[in-house]
Amino acid sequence: MDRLYEFLVASGFEADQQTTVIGKFQRQQLHKGELFTQEGRICDRLGFVEQGLFQFFCDRNGDELTTYTAGPDDFLVSLSSFLKQQPARESIRALTDSVIWVISRQAFVQLRHDLPPFETFYVGLLEDQINCIEESRYNLLTLTAEQRYQKMMDEEPHLLQEVPLHYLASILGVTPRHLSRIRGQIR
Questions:
Q1: Is residue 68 within a helix (H) or strand (E), and if so which, with residue range?
Q2: Domain 2-115 carries which CATH code?
Q3: I need a surface site. Which of 17, 18, 21, 59 has the fewest CB within 10 A?
């Protein structure tokens, strides 16, 4: 709860607003390998990661493609499924034993309606997500695999220690074997 509280304080919520928002979240523990959201099902909740590491992935013809990872202070949601109430195109799995704070879609919508600063907060989160998606897409289209790996080393070095190699390879859009070659060249 401390991380969620600190996140709300940093986001500009006043004390009574923090209490209102925090009261809508429920603590949940997930064990390594458990799913937060499953591809093909509607995502009707949003999670805030207090502790742990998560993999966003989809299954394409039997191949698991990792699209994103999330750790402490990140949010877990299959965004289009949550917003449009349609089946999720991805699954979200705990890569480690984890603690998250979960809010239902219904409570989330109610906060947006009842608490104007929460609506502002929500728009800010969406803008951040849009920027992340755009940056990721741009990098995949314009950077070489070596440049993408170097960028990950520079900007998110913790991922190289925490995320298994085959997931990193998928995020970078290469095979694990190609990633091993890249790592050998860059070291």
A1: strand 63-70
A2: 2.60.120.10
A3: 59
